[in-house]
Write a structure and sequence with these properties.
alpha/beta, Rossmann fold, 2 domains, 24% strand
C-alpha cells in the first residue's frame, strides 16, 4: 500500500513538472510583466507633477540710483499672499545661489544688422551666468525664428551652448512666445527645481513675435506656473519704437525680472554726419573710426553685466502659503515690502498654487 502511495505521488510530481514545462510561456507572463514594469520605472516619464506647497520669491532691492541694496536681513522683509502676511520659512542673501538659466536667442531678420555683436554678447552672457566650474549653475539654449528650437538641453557645460551660438545665423520670423513655452515644457529638469535651483529665462531679442502658436497671455501664465523669472536684453535700436518693447515689459514685470535697453542711449550724443560731415565737433562718434560699433558693443555688454549681476545678487525668500483654500487653483497675488524708504523692490507678482508641468524627453 505504501509503495502504491509513493508511486502515485511520484507520478503526480512528474505530471506537474511536465505541465509546467509545456506551459512555460504562460508562466513567464508575470515575470515579463514585472520586468516591463521595472523597465518603465527606470525610464524618464513624459509628465512630472509638481505640487507647489512652498513658494520661492527672488527679490531685487535697488536704491534711487539703481544700485543694488545687498545688506538687508530677514527682519527687513514682509511678504503678503492675497493681502495676508506670511511667515518666511527661508531667507538668504548669499551670492551664487543655484540657478537654471534658459538662454533664448532671437534669430529673426531684425537682428541681421548687428548680429556679430549680438552673437559675441550672447557668448559673454553664457560665460557670466554659466561658469562651468560648478553644478550649481546649469543652462539650456533655445534659438527662435520661424520656429523655436531647443539647441542644447540642460547642462552645466557652457562650451556646448557656446559652440551652438557660434554657428547660429539669423533669418526668418520670430516665434518668441513659442520659445518661452518650450523652455517651460520641453527640456530636462534638474533635481530640486523650481525651489533650488530656481528658474531664470534671459531673452536676447526685440520682443517682436509674428510666428508663434501661443499667445503672450498663455506664456505669461505658464511662466508664472513654473516659477520662472524672465529677463531681457532688448535689441531694439535707438530711435525705433517696437511693439515688442511692450511684450518684453509685460513678460519681465509679471515674473519679477526686467528689461535692459543697451541701444537706446548709444546715439544720444550723435548729430547727423550727413548734414555736417566735416565738423567733427558736432558728433561724438566719428565715421570710419569704429566708434559706432564700439559704442553698441559697450552698451550691450553693460546690459549683460547688469542682468548677470541681478540674477546672482537677489534675495531669496521662501514660504509655505497660509491662505484660505476656497480658490486653490487660481492665481494668487504676492506683495513684498522692505522696511526702507527710497528703494525699489522687484519680485514676481504672484503664482499658481497647483501645477502639472509637462516635460518632453
Amino acid at each position: 500500500m505504501r509503495s502504491l502511495v509513493v508511486c502515485f505521488l511520484f507520478a503526480a510530481l512528474v505530471s506537474a513538472q511536465s505541465s509546467t514545462s509545456n506551459s512555460a510561456p504562460a508562466s513567464d507572463k508575470p515575470a515579463a510583466a514585472k520586468a516591463a514594469s521595472a523597465q518603465s520605472e527606470q525610464e524618464p516619464t513624459h509628465t512630472i507633477r509638481v505640487q507647489v506647497n512652498e513658494v520661492i520669491v527672488p527679490v531685487t532691492v535697488t536704491d534711487e540710483k539703481g544700485r543694488f541694496v545687498n545688506d538687508l536681513d530677514r527682519k527687513d522683509f514682509r511678504i503678503f499672499d492675497e493681502g495676508r502676511e506670511q511667515k518666511i520659512s527661508f531667507f538668504t542673501r548669499e551670492r551664487g545661489q543655484p540657478v537654471v538659466v534658459g538662454f533664448l536667442i532671437d534669430l529673426s531678420n531684425s537682428n541681421r544688422l548687428h548680429w556679430n555683436t549680438y552673437q559675441e554678447a550672447a557668448l559673454d552672457l553664457v560665460n557670466n551666468l554659466l561658469p562651468g566650474d560648478t553644478k550649481k549653475y546649469q543652462g539650456y539654449l533655445i534659438g527662435y525664428s520661424n520656429e523655436a528650437e531647443l539647441q542644447v538641453n540642460t547642462t552645466e557645460d557652457p562650451e556646448r551652448l557656446m559652440e551652438k551660438i557660434r554657428k547660429m545665423k539669423p533669418g526668418g520670423g520670430s516665434a518668441l512666445f513659442d520659445a518661452i513655452y518650450m523652455s517651460c515644457t520641453s527640456r530636462h529638469l534638474v533635481k530640486g527645481e523650481p525651489i533650488e535651483p530656481r528658474r531664470v529665462i534671459v531673452i536676447m531679442g526685440d520682443g517682436h513675435d509674428n510666428a508663434s502658436k501661443h499667445t503672450l497671455d498663455q506664456v505669461i501664465e505658464i511662466a508664472q506656473r513654473n516659477l520662472v523669472s524672465i529677463y531681457a536684453v532688448s535689441t531694439t535700436g535707438f530711435g525705433f519704437v517696437s511693439e515688442g518693447d511692450a511684450n518684453l515689459e509685460r513678460l519681465t514685470n509679471e515674473t519679477g525680472g526686467r528689461v535692459e535697453y543697451p541701444l537706446q542711449g548709444t546715439y544720444k550724443d550723435v548729430d547727423g554726419y550727413l548734414s555736417k560731415p566735416s565738423d567733427d565737433g558736432n558728433y561724438a562718434l566719428t565715421v570710419g573710426t569704429g566708434g559706432y560699433a564700439a559704442a553698441i558693443a559697450q552698451g550691450i555688454f553693460k546690459s549683460i553685466a547688469n542682468v548677470a549681476g541681478e540674477v546672482t545678487t537677489q534675495y531669496i525668500i521662501r514660504y509655505v502659503p497660509d491662505v484660505p483654500d476656497s480658490r486653490p487653483k487660481q492665481f494668487r497675488n504676492i506683495r513684498v515690502q522692505v522696511a526702507l524708504e527710497n528703494v525699489k523692490v522687484r519680485a514676481r507678482r504672484g503664482y499658481y498654487p497647483e501645477e502639472v508641468i509637462p516635460i518632453s524627453k
